[in-house]
Structures are given as C-alpha cells and as structure tokens.
From TrEMBL:
<feature type="modified residue" description="N6-(pyridoxal phosphate)lysine">
    <location>
        <position position="61"/>
    </location>
</feature>
<dbReference type="GO" id="GO:0030170">
    <property type="term" value="F:pyridoxal phosphate binding"/>
</dbReference>
<feature type="binding site">
    <location>
        <position position="373"/>
    </location>
    <ligand>
        <name>substrate</name>
    </ligand>
</feature>
<comment type="pathway">
    <text>Amino-acid biosynthesis; L-lysine biosynthesis via DAP pathway; L-lysine from DL-2,6-diaminopimelate: step 1/1.</text>
</comment>
<feature type="binding site">
    <location>
        <begin position="276"/>
        <end position="279"/>
    </location>
    <ligand>
        <name>pyridoxal 5'-phosphate</name>
    </ligand>
</feature>
<feature type="domain" description="Orn/DAP/Arg decarboxylase 2 C-terminal">
    <location>
        <begin position="30"/>
        <end position="371"/>
    </location>
</feature>
<dbReference type="GO" id="GO:0009089">
    <property type="term" value="P:lysine biosynthetic process via diaminopimelate"/>
</dbReference>
<feature type="active site" description="Proton donor">
    <location>
        <position position="344"/>
    </location>
</feature>
<dbReference type="Pfam" id="PF02784">
    <property type="entry name" value="Orn_Arg_deC_N"/>
</dbReference>
<feature type="domain" description="Orn/DAP/Arg decarboxylase 2 N-terminal">
    <location>
        <begin position="36"/>
        <end position="282"/>
    </location>
</feature>
<dbReference type="GO" id="GO:0008836">
    <property type="term" value="F:diaminopimelate decarboxylase activity"/>
</dbReference>
<dbReference type="InterPro" id="IPR022643">
    <property type="entry name" value="De-COase2_C"/>
</dbReference>
<protein>
    <recommendedName>
        <fullName>Diaminopimelate decarboxylase</fullName>
        <ecNumber>4.1.1.20</ecNumber>
    </recommendedName>
</protein>
<dbReference type="InterPro" id="IPR009006">
    <property type="entry name" value="Ala_racemase/Decarboxylase_C"/>
</dbReference>
<feature type="binding site">
    <location>
        <position position="345"/>
    </location>
    <ligand>
        <name>substrate</name>
    </ligand>
</feature>
<comment type="subunit">
    <text>Homodimer.</text>
</comment>
<dbReference type="InterPro" id="IPR000183">
    <property type="entry name" value="Orn/DAP/Arg_de-COase"/>
</dbReference>
Length: 420
C-alpha cells in the first residue's frame, strides 16, 4: 500500500497534488511519501512482534537521503551500511551507533577506523582476510570489534542474477562449510569478538522457500559453532523480501508470513535477530515525476519521450526492471507506446509496447515504485545534473535534495596548466 492516489482527477502524494511540485521544482523530480515509509516500517516491525528484541537495521543503500533516514530513525529503525559514507550519513541523521551494522565485501582500513571510533552494533565480515585486517586496525586503536561472519549458504535466491548474493559463485561471504574454521581463526586474533552469524542471499525475493532454506542452514551452523565453544548471541538474517512492481505478477510473500516463518525456524536459536530491509520499506514510498517532451512516431508503436532518463532511474536499463507508468492527470484515453528518455543510448528505455494512459507533450507522468535503488543509483551521464528529491508529509512538502546545476559539474573538472 502507498499514499499516491487520485483526488479530483489529479494524482496526489498524500495531500499534495503532484502538479504543484512539478511547477515549483521542475521535472524530473523524485517524490517520497513519509506516511508510506512509516506504515511499511510499522508493518514489518509488527510482523516480528513475537521475537525477542529484534534489531531492524534499514539498508541505507536503498535510499540514503537524510530525510528518509530521519523518518525511519523516528520509527525506531537502525541502519545497515556498506561504506564509510553510508555510516556517516546514518550518524548524521541521528541513528544511534548501537543500531548500526557494517556490511560489505570491500571494507577498507580507513572505514574500519571510522566505524570503530564512532561505534556500532556489529561488523559483518566477508572473509578471513578481512578479519585479519580488522584485527590489526582494532588492536592499533586499543578497541575490540564485535564481529559476525557473513556465510554463503549456496542457495539460489530466484531473483535477477545481478541482485542474487547467496549462491556459491557470488562474491559475498565465506562458504558455510568453511565457517567453523573461520570462527576459530577469528577467535585467535586480537581485537575481535566473534559473537554473531550473518546471511543475506539476495534482493527482491518473491518466495520464502530460499530464505527458509538459508536460515535453516544458519541454525545448523550456530549449533556447530556453540559445540566448538563460540558464544553466538546474534544472527543477522539480512533483507531481500520482494515488493510488487508489476500488478500482473504474483504478489510477493507478506511481512506477516515472513515473520511467521522466521519465528518457526529460529525458535530454539536463543539469539538476538537482526534484519536489513530496504526496498520493502521505501520502494513503494517514491515516484519519479516526469514531463512528456514529445510523442514521436515509431515503426510499430509511438515513442513517448520524457525528460527523465536512464541516468535518473537506472533499474530498467540495468535489470530490465518493470515500473508502472501512470498519468498524473488521466484523460480516460489509452495508447500502446515505447517510453524513452533523452539520453543517447538505446538502453534509455523505460518500457516497450506498454499499454498506458494516453500521453502528449506537456503531460506529467510518474514512474511508480521508485523509492528504492533509484535516486541513489543516479549518475550525471550526458552531463545531466542529478535529480532533486522531495519529501511529502501530509499537506506539507519540502525539497530534501536540491537539483544539481550544470555549472557545478563544470566546476568539478580541472584543466591542467598545459591545456589552459
């Protein structure tokens, strides 16, 4: 459920008409609903209500905007971060260090120092080599780092290959069969406190079966680690639960069903569970608002050319992702069209042969379900400035990231003396 609805024939975000935002800020522009984020955060936490003090650590990579983090902070969520930059964003937004989990396969010594100095809940380590680096950094600082190993259970997530992370050929984690030896090595290293196990098999999962399979393997590992003398008190089950993009596709499992499965599988683990939802919380809380530049005839279907492009919303080009496209002020007409942007790439295509509301030059459209992995993945390709972001909360709204200007792009370049 989201809070983007037609009122008086015009699409609103909560109580704000989208044309008002377009007129004030211009297009393209991302628009986020605070009410939707709050609702999704509460639904997820309610699904875990039967667990003992779970930590819900929002995956900052999904949408790192400070206003988004502040809304979720007020809902009691922590943060799952994968870089020093994300850690600094989370702390700047007021998220407590004891609610922050530091994941990621390529942590640097500088990032480790930053996070050890600022505090955290747990490092999720991805290799023995990373454990050795963290040991050296922590020892030099006179600190002890709480750690878990991310294990790779060799479970196919069933999602797009580029967002599947739990198969044996993926770069993430250590093979689960090597975990006992890895924990023994970590326990021998100074400055480390091995206290947890972590797993994350992918994103946009539409079935609970691969998650349950991975979690059962983690439960067996926890038992083996305890037999080997390790005091395991935390288990990070990652994120990945899918959300609906295409209304014609089967609905993903609900958070309630997910919570029941987790409660059943982990009933005898005796650990604090950690979760890393991202897309589930913010995906449906955002749209990309765009204006039609012109409609151009095509060989089969016309091209609806909009002022948003693949640099603003990369998911269709990168993953062949499907986003619903709706008119802001539908006229009751329909068309079959190819929706494309102005970037000089054939990949700058949002939809092909899409049945959609009739559109003409000057009309406003929205790409729905654009709150996650959208603005955060944007680029300045074709010297197109980064798109602004707007937060709506009831009847009030604010720009939460200004539109970048071309002059700032030019100023960032440097012409060497010999070419000046």
């Amino acid at each position: 459920m989201d809070h983007f609805h037609l009122k008086g024939g015009v699409l609103h975000c909560e109580d704000v008409p989208l044309p008002a935002i377009a007129e004030a800020v211009g297009t393209p522009v991302y628009v986020y609903s605070a009410a939707t984020m709050r609702r999704h955060a509460r639904v997820f936490r309610e699904a875990l209500a039967g667990l003992d003090d779970p930590l819900v650590a929002y995956a900052v990579k999904a949408n790192p905007n400070a206003a988004v983090l502040a809304v979720l902070r007020d809902e009691g969520l922590g943060a799952d971060v994968v870089s020093g930059g994300e850690y600094r964003r989370a702390r700047a937004a007021g998220i407590a260090p004891e609610k922050i989990v530091f994941s990621g396969v390529g942590k640097t010594a500088e990032e480790m120092r930053l996070v050890l100095d600022g505090g955290l809940c747990q490092f999720n380590l991805e290799s023995v080599e990373e454990a050795e680096m963290l040991s050296a950094v922590a020892s030099n600082m006179g600190r002890t780092a709480p750690v878990a190993f991310r294990v790779n259970p060799d479970v196919e997530a069933g999602s797009h290959a580029k967002i599947s992370t739990g198969a044996a050929h993926n770069k993430f984690g250590i093979p689960i069969g090597e975990a006992v030896a890895a924990y023994a090595r970590a326990r021998s290293l100074p400055g480390l406190d091995p206290q947890g196990v972590a797993v994350h098999i992918g994103s946009q999962l539409t079935s609970l079966a691969p998650l349950e399979s991975a979690f059962r393997k983690v439960g067996e590992l926890i038992a083996d680690l305890r037999k080997a003398g390790h005091d395991i008190v935390k288990a990070d089950l990652g994120g990945g639960l899918g959300i609906p993009y295409d209304p014609e596709a089967p609905l993903p499992p609900s958070p309630e069903l997910y919570g029941r499965m987790v409660a059943d599988v982990t009933a005898d683990w005796n650990v604090r569970l950690i979760f890393e939802p991202g897309r589930l919380i913010v995906g449906n809380a955002g749209v990309l608002l765009t204006e039609v530049i012109r409609v151009k005839p095509g060989a089969t279907d016309p091209f609806v050319i909009v002022d948003a492009a693949m640099n603003d919303l990369m998911r269709p080009s990168l993953y062949d992702a499907w986003h619903a496209i709706d008119a802001v002020t539908p006229k009751g007409t329909h068309m079959t069209a190819n929706v494309v942007g102005p970037v000089c790439e054939t990949g700058d295509t949002f939809a092909t042969a899409r049945e959609m509301d009739g559109a003409r030059a000057g009309d406003l459209l929205v790409f729905r379900t654009a709150g996650a992995y959208a603005a955060t993945m944007a680029s300045t390709y074709n010297s197109r400035p980064l798109t602004p972001e707007v937060m709506v909360d009831g009847g009030r709204w604010a720009v939460v990231r200004e539109r970048q200007d071309v002059e700032s792009l030019i100023r960032a370049d440097r012409i060497p003396d010999w070419l000046a």
